[in-house]
Amino acid sequence: MKQELKENTGLPSSLLWILAIIAGISVANLYYNQPLLNLISHDLKVSEFSANLIAMTTQIGYALGLLFIIPLGDLYKRKTIILINFSILVVSLLTIATAPNIYIILLASLLTGICSVMPQIFVPIAAQFSTPETKGKNVGMIISGLLTGILASRVVSGIAGEYMGWRFIFYVAAVLMVVCVIIIMRILPDIPSNFRGKYSDLMKSLLSLVTDYPQLRISSLRASIAFGSFLALWSSLAFKMEQAPFFAGNNVIGLLGLCGIMGALTASFIGRYVHILGVKRLNYIGCSLLFIAWLSLYIGQNSYAGIISGILLIDIGMQCIQLSNQTTIFALNPKASNRINTIFMTTYFAGGSLGTFLAGTFWHWFGWSGVVGTGIALTACSLVINIRAKKINQESISLK
Length: 400
What we know:
Layout: H1 13-27, H2 37-44, H3 48-68, H4 78-98, H5 102-115, H6 119-129, H7 135-164, H8 168-187, H9 199-212, H10 214-234, H11 237-241, H12 250-255, H13 257-264, H14 267-271, H15 274-277, H16 279-299, H17 304-329, H18 337-366, H19 368-388
Helix pairs in contact: 1-6, 1-7, 1-8, 2-3, 3-5, 3-18, 4-5, 4-8, 6-7, 6-18, 7-13, 9-18, 10-17, 10-18, 10-19, 13-17, 16-17, 16-19, 18-19
């Protein structure tokens, strides 16, 4: 049943759960390719570097979608935007599944990335309509669904790729998008827009938000560079695990995603403590965990214990950084929640694309040591930004 939503009055738990699940299903489209890059490379007879461009192109598409589509949530009905994007996803995913060469895959992957941004409309919904005391927890729940989808997608696609071929999972993903369209049509209420004006005015307002809120600039930048470190691992892991001493199949590579799911489930818990610990402190904790994770991934690179420990730590650390920064920025201007989230997440995935590209490049030149060096360098950059950031009251922003 559709229910009317009113700002700051609370979200029905059933709607929140459904949004979290759909967020996970839709964001998974970005990551199905990562455990399959080695299979795609062999099947299409392209280099590992060329195959890695598929992951990078998908991330670039996501950044473009965040920049040009998510602001529309303040101008038009969000439900309409969600339905259009999910419908396009059906076409792009089927195109990847049937593509005869990497060029078509790259084009369809770009479109898939652009249209997979809908979870970033769900996050502002959770922030805007939750009661003040439940904002952090409810945003954390959507993020938990999103992160679980990211990690579970690698598990599912890895297993499917091993036994059914790499194309199979994209057929499944297309069917799931059809199911999501049906569910959204039935359960999501119409939410009024917050902006009056033209699309060009809407896009110009993004620059004003960046200029007016230094908190937004700092939160976006330090989180995005850390995300580049996070994706440096996941975009290169399949290449590492298929080599000695592991010689792991894609089913094993995919199952490593289960290690990260345990971390993803802590997002709602972390969200409760954002206003208690403060953003800077949680970023210090997150960067520390990322450094320890990369140390484990280097020292224990030839053992499952070292790899699994690194995955667990890097996932939990990344949640501390993302959730603390993303939750607090919505209090800057609740009426511009979609545009604020656009700025944050566009920067976030631009950083992810950078990390993916650098990891692929240094893997090609230096192997696993190059990937670890990339992850450590990006984490260090995020830490430096956090250290040098002025105390601009981010810790004291109330989640109104």
